[in-house]
Amino acid sequence: MNDSLKTLLVIAFLIVIVWNLGAGLYYLMIDRGQTKRTVNALTRRIVLSVVLILLVVLGIYSGWIRPHGVGG
């Protein structure tokens, strides 16, 4: 897998995570606690964050991702 595809995958995950965070805020403001949409959106955000972290750890462990320093 080339570097640009890995970068796009991480960026796509981050966009979806921020989208779910915004959806949670929107549902919190609109529903005023009457539905579970806020909880569902925030739960999806947490699950996506954990999946992204696990994918990065798996990528580093398997050698697909090479961590480097700030200047590297």
UniProtKB/TrEMBL annotation:
The chain crosses the membrane at residues 6-30, 42-64. This is Membrane protein. NCBIfam families: twin_helix. Keywords: Membrane, Transmembrane, Transmembrane helix. It comes from the Bacteria. The keyword Transmembrane applies. InterPro entries: DUF2909.
